[in-house]
Amino acid sequence: MKYSIKFLSLILLLLSLCLASAADRPNVIIILADDMGFSDIGAYGGEIETPSLDNLAANGMTFSRFYNSGRCCPTRASLMTGLHPHQTGIGWMTNPPETFKYDHGPDFPNYRGHLNRDCVTMAEVLKENGYATILAGKWHLGMNKQDRWPLQRGFEKFYGCLAGATNFFYPEYPRGITEGNTHIENQESTTDRRYYTTDAFTDNAIRFIKEENAGKDRPFFLYLAYTSPHWPLHAHQEEVQKYIGKYKMGWDALREQRLKRQRELGLIDENWKLSERSHVAWEEMDEAKKTEMDLRMANYAAMIDRMDQNIGNLVAYLKESGQLDSTLIMFFSDNGACQEGGKLGGRTDPHDLETWERTYGAGPAYGEVWANASNTPFRKFKHYTHEGGLSTPFIAHWPNGIKASKKWYSDPAYLIDLAPTVYELTGARYPRSYAGNAIPELTGVSLAAAFKGKSLKRSKPLYFEHEDNAALMDGKWKLVGSKVSVPGGPDEKNWELYDIEADRSETNDLAKSRPEVLARLSKDWLAWANQVGVFPKPAKRSTE
Known about the structure:
- By secondary structure, this protein is α/β, with parallel strands linked by helices.
- The chain folds into two domains: 23-454, Alkaline Phosphatase, subunit A (3-Layer(aba) Sandwich), CATH 3.40.720.10; 460-544, Arylsulfatase, C-terminal domain (2-Layer Sandwich), CATH 3.30.1120.10.
- Helices cover 32% and strands 15% of the residues.
- It has 15 helices and 17 strands.
- Helix 6 (197-215) packs parallel to helix 9, helix 7 crosses helix 9 (287-320) and helix 8 (250-265) packs parallel to helix 11 (368-374).
- The longest helix has 34 residues, at 287-320.
- It is globular.
- The model is unreliable at 5-22 (pLDDT under 50).
């Protein structure tokens, strides 16, 4: 009898501790930029005006080595589930509106082009664990059937675009705006300026939080997924005019300027070389082309500037409502800067505003060479698994849980770490089955230790694959390759090997001089690829 009373007392004590910790659970906000480069914001060496993000960085912590999945929707799939993209059904890309281009059928279950039911989203988990779940912005995880939409995957409130990109001023069907499960035909501005998606996503995110605060006593999870600065490069002229002329220095000088600043910040090692310029030198172009390219970069910078202003609006609301200290904010980009749209940005004339602002597509872009500058000092861009494709700024801010630090956190971390982090800090339980389906275990590492300034003590390498581009990071070694598509074992000629402690900008390939390391890591990568469903891989994309 005494044993039973003691046991019951212990259970009651544990329950009281759980209830106390539940009351202290943080709000969680994940802010995702779209196609933004590693060096664009001020805290990471850029000249673009980003005081809101810089302030979050100064009063929180910054990671020098945080990695995404190199592309929009694979990153979102990992972010939302804590799994590798192939495990979620988005081994390549999400199907575009009203097509099934990336659905390769039941023979290739990991390449169906939408989030499958063999995974559970962060929203689904947090909703079942007492959180309000809000999405404002870009979904891009399935749209051609309603059961793939945000409200059917755990979000209680949604305002944004289901597709991967829209026109910023005139979003129209089938790449228009949806609220809840309803498509909205006519957009109206909630400010004194005309409608602009970056503004609208933030305004509705704040509206949803206010509605939640007014009606319920529970913490919230907000996923604020901007489409900025993804093409088309649409920006308000108030911001554009701030940057006109600033980029007449050209990309060569800009890269050197950013690199100098990164070294001063302690972000980039003095011994790491600047990667090669991706295309022509600035001085090789005539004055008319320089003026055009200056304008393209000014539009790009203006989009980031406006996004930062909106983040400032959100932070201001949290502070005014007394919620900032108890809110964990994490900011990063879905991939490196985007080279799509041509070496020099495509044919769309940036001086023709009427045409420029009504376009949709990669044409209104800033070009591969500016993307190269955005990723200073790294190689490559979006799509690729070199550092320029995978590396992102990562800022974590949480006054009640993170002590401000001026030091860069240098342990490598990546997307599949976020779900374990959120679940640990919120006390949420991750299920091993959901809606009758078995759910894979999480293999990421919680960043809770990092938030306390401690090592993550990761025991396994970091693995990546997208569009036949692959990478593995193990200690100082990075294996990176392209055309890696052979199930029986990738051809060694397609692999490169780098010591990223000495050469993170990947300028000295050691594949030939360290064949034993290459062989070990490529074997390890292949075992992982077979485990998570990279293979079997369709031989070519569907054209449905």
